[in-house]
């Protein structure tokens, strides 16, 4: 009997995490339930525009050159985003091949929440950037569901909170992507303004897209509220937990001081882009009306 049990455990260990039923602790269940809907998946599409001819391109027969995914957080300061959502081309190795000859243009911003079936239903959601925190997180205005908004943690000191990861299987398969949420209890020292803390990505449960760090705050009558302390950012090949508000004051974002993402570029000689299968969309220098207006506003 003992041999049989040992064999079964060994076989289970060989299964991928997605095929195993992961038993979560009470703390994980409470945390994930409390912050459900506070984070959104941001799917940012962009196009490229030839600096000489003004022709705008997608790729592989599609309107967009690429779609880049990141995590945003709904807070009482506004929608907190990272650079990957604002300037997605900086995180696309294919754009580096053409950046001397093409300017990037924000094409379509979509957001969605991870539902109970681990799926995300996206809807178009233009964003207006209102403010950048000193260490590289942005606060934006966006038409997102106003439920489950997190407060902002600005207090310096040791934190005893939860690191919550959002991972995805087959991230490039668009709407068929299966998402998962993983949380782990972790203490951190946030003793400096806007500090970065090195962290390890979860192993074996899909591709990490991003994450957040939340802390419980205990109020009167036994009420517990969770606040956003940090947001997970990938820098080159490593992950860091950034605390964009700790040590700083903040105000709720108003629409008067917000604007759409923009980009600027300089002329240069053409490069060979045959391997990228560019798809001409339109002549950006000749089109008028709403399309031209959108491209000009979102020009990077």
Question: What are the key terms here?
Answer:
300 residues; mainly beta; Thrombin, subunit H; nine-stranded antiparallel β-sheet; seven-stranded mixed β-sheet; 5 helices; globular; disordered N terminus
- Which residues sit in consecutive blocks of at least 5 with pLDDT less than 50? 1-21, 253-258, 264-273, 285-300
How many helices? The count is 5
Mean pLDDT: 78
Report the sheet-strand fraction. 35-45%
Overview of the structural elements:
The chain has 300 residues and is mainly beta. The protein has a single domain (24-257), classed as Trypsin-like serine proteases (Thrombin, subunit H, Beta Barrel). The protein is built from five helices and 16 strands. The longest helix is centred in the N-terminal third of the chain and has 13 residues, at 2-14. It starts with a helix and ends with a helix. Mean pLDDT is 78; it is low at 1-21, 253-258, 264-273 and 285-300.
């Amino acid at each position: 009997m003992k041999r049989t049990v040992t064999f079964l455990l060994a076989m289970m260990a060989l299964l991928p995490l997605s095929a195993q039923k992961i038993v979560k602790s009470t703390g994980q269940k409470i945390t994930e339930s409390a912050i459900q809907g506070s984070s959104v998946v941001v799917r940012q599409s962009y196009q490229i525009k030839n600096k000489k001819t003004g022709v705008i391109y997608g790729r592989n027969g599609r309107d967009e050159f690429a779609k880049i995914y990141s995590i945003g957080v709904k807070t009482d300061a506004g929608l907190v985003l990272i650079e990957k959502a604002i300037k997605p081309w900086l995180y696309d190795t294919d754009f580096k091949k053409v950046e001397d000859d093409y300017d990037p243009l924000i094409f379509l911003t979509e957001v969605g929440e991870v539902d109970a079936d681990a799926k995300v239903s996206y809807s178009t959601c233009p964003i207006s950037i209102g403010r950048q925190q000193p260490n590289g997180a942005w606060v934006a205005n966006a038409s997102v569901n106003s439920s489950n908004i997190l407060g902002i943690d600005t207090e310096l000191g040791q934190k005893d909170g939860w690191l919550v990861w959002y991972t995805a299987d087959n991230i490039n398969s668009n709407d068929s992507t299966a998402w998962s949420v993983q949380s782990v209890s972790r203490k951190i020292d946030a003793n400096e303004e806007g500090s970065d803390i090195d962290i390890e990505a979860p192993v074996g449960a899909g591709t990490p897209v991003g994450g957040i760090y939340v802390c419980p705050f205990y109020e009167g009558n036994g009420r517990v509220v969770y606040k956003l302390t940090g947001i997970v950012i990938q820098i080159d090949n490593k992950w860091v937990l950034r605390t964009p508000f700790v040590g700083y004051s903040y105000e709720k974002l108003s629409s008067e001081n917000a604007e759409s993402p923009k980009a600027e570029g300089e002329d240069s000689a053409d490069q060979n882009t045959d391997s990228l299968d560019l798809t001409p969309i339109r002549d950006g220098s000749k089109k008028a009306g709403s399309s031209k207006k959108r491209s000009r506003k979102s020009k990077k």
